[in-house]
Amino acid sequence: MAAPFFSETGKEKGTAYQYFEILPLNTETSYTAEQLNQYIKSHIPETYQNKMNGSGPLATLGDSFIAAQNQYGVNALYLLAHAIHESAWGSSAIAQTKYNLFGFGAVDSDPYNGAKKFNSYQDGINYVAQYVAHQYQNPKGSYYHGAMLGNKAAGMNAKYASDPLWGQQIAGYMYRIDKALGKKDFGRYTSGSYKLAVSTVDAPLNVRTQPSASDSKDISYHLPSSGAAMIVSGQVSNRDGTWYKIFSDQSNFLDRETAYIYHNGPRGTLSEIVNVAGEKQ
User: Fold this and answer.
1) Nearest of 6, 137, 115 to residue 69 by alpha carbon
2) Which residues touch 140 (CB under 8 Å, ≥6 apart)?
3) What pLDDT does 11 receive?
4) CATH number, domain at 248?
5) pTM for this model (two decimals)
6) Among residues 148, 180, 212, which one ends one of the domains?
7) Among 58, 144, 232, 242, which residue is least crowded by beta carbons within 10 Å?
8) What share of the chain is helix, strand, coil (3-state, %, to 5)?
9) pLDDT tens-digit readout, 31-88
10) Domain limits at 245?
């Protein structure tokens, strides 16, 4: 998820994170349904196109991905990337016969029989979007480890898939789709007043309704582990130290709430804004 980056002289300057791997998924994409469909039509590998005798189901489901995003608050670019990865561009047997683009319910020992069957592709997309929103993006969810894709330490990948590179691979699809469609999403939350930050402590980190450490009633939820990411929209300093004003994971872009997390001061450095690979440092 993070790797060192260097100056032009070769001197190591710090650590850079992959943008789509740490972007919280309770955000929205800049792209329309038609643009998502067009990407599939233009970029589906020939092997899969030949297998399906055409572009397959993903080339017609842009409206469903956008509708799921706008109903459940789950990024549609992520949903499409997840579907591409798990269904081999819509060509897998699970996708073709069970309308299951995400391999949802499949287990390593028996993927096909374990996978859930849906009544339609739209039903499958809605089911998985709702499940991700409730169980992985929301701090009250059973599998919440931060609202981003992440890795085995933090994010969806900590619990969703056995493959330690699962989050990185889906983030890679998001990057490639975004690049092909004009790079409207990359850096959206690392420019202007927005930054991405991560927890730096190997323990639960309090997220509060107010920038104060004096009242336990202000605690909304916890970031569970080091590396869990958040979108920072501002900064506040007081006698306790410096706080980041963040977008709460108890909300999404449909009804955004703010919260506060401790950055640094007498208690040490508990979170920090990070550098993103591919951006000027």
Assistant:
1) 137
2) 221, 250
3) 43
4) 2.30.30
5) 0.94
6) 180
7) 242
8) 35, 20, 45
9) 999 999 999 999 999 999 999 999 999 999 999 999 999 999 999 999 999 999 999 9
10) 195-276
